[in-house]
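Re: that chain you flagged

S.,

Sorry for the slow reply, it's been a week of failed gels. I finally had a moment to sit down with the sequence you sent. For the record, here it is as I used it:
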Amino acid sequence: MNKFNVALIGRPNVGKSTLFNRLIGKKKAIVSTIPGTTRDRIKGEIDHNDQIINITDVGGFTDDQIDQFSDEIKEQINYSLNNCDLIIMITDGNEGITSTDKNVAQIIRNTNKKSILVVNKIDNNEKQYNINDFFELGFENILGISAYHNLKIDLLVDEIIDNIPKITNDVSSNYKNEIKLSIVGRPNTGKSTLFNTLYGSKRSITSDIPGTTRDSIDYDITISNQLYNIVDTPGIRRRGKIDNFIEQVSVSKAIDYISESDVSILLIDITEPATNQDSQIIKTILNSTDGIIIAINKSDLIKEKSLIQNEIENRIRDEFKFLKFAPIITISGLNGSNIKKLLSLTNTIHARSKVIHDSDKLNNFIMSKIAQNLPKNKPNQTLHIYGIMQNNNYPNVFEITVNNPKFVHFSYKRYLENVIRENFDYEGVIIKMFFKSRRKK
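Prediction finished late last night. Pasting the structure tokens below so you have them in one place:
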């Protein structure tokens, strides 16, 4: 499946993120009236006739913004310009042309790449006349739209498609073998540094200021012939510590990404392991994804801080007893220590989560274990278990047929999970069990 790369470029607060969300058909980028909300490159896709169109939303381009991240945002923008096939410049139809718009237009012209100028916030007929002013910027293709009101977005998509070169060769797709991997943890545990090490370049903006990453950013990376979609999520803090709207939305989107991933890497700071917030994040992962790895990051600080690795691992095991099935690995996102082992572990867990057992053998085995340890019943709440089966689409999900799901005690559910784990290879795999009533004939 071929890919065509489109970059959305413009100064802050012209509606890039709103347009990005419209194009990909979901609210992936954070939308806010606060200039500079988008700091990292955010990627989404449009699938058109077996042609993948990558849409990249980058930080707002400014030449006078006083912001400690502005230089790094410009670096992200320059990368997007150098690695795209089509540039869409977004301007504000209400505000008219600014000096920054002129600078951005000149930068785009210097790339000699195909480009479209979008005049946003054109939401009525009177504002159509505002579009004429923007011919001054020197673009051949100019289109007035309203991303917020979803006006003429279809025409913009048609323009994008018209710029895609015709495909004459058949390119096979590797998407079926893709592993969706999310990097999750508290703020400042080194998620973006690990992401950049995996990607091989400075893709996420990193700093020692908690909350630097606001958007969940993802990218397709092929390592040793394995395709990964790796997501760097914002640091998740306790609800009581989330003090602004942008952070609330970014955390919500981080949870959405975890739900879409096959395996989540829980990144723990080696200097501050096993916190209450880690426990809350683990609960989110267990409810959302299929596999989990505990990665203790910043092993490069062991000597400097006089840390004892075994003690840290034992502390994590003691604090998170409910996560004893998850493998622990100590890494350094900064110097790349144990990164290959981390990816190998990811591949193994992903493969384990997709194994489908022979249904008869599985059912007979589990029912024999149930017969050896029958559930303890309360008066008038006798639990009868009739059978177990795997979900064909989600093999780590086990569906158990009973007379009444309300009669299942959590301790017996835990017993059944332990039986499955002790007899099948499910290290790192999150097992989910659903109890359903048998249909009456």
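What I noticed first: The CA atoms of residues 388 and 400 lie 4 Å apart.

Talk soon,
D.
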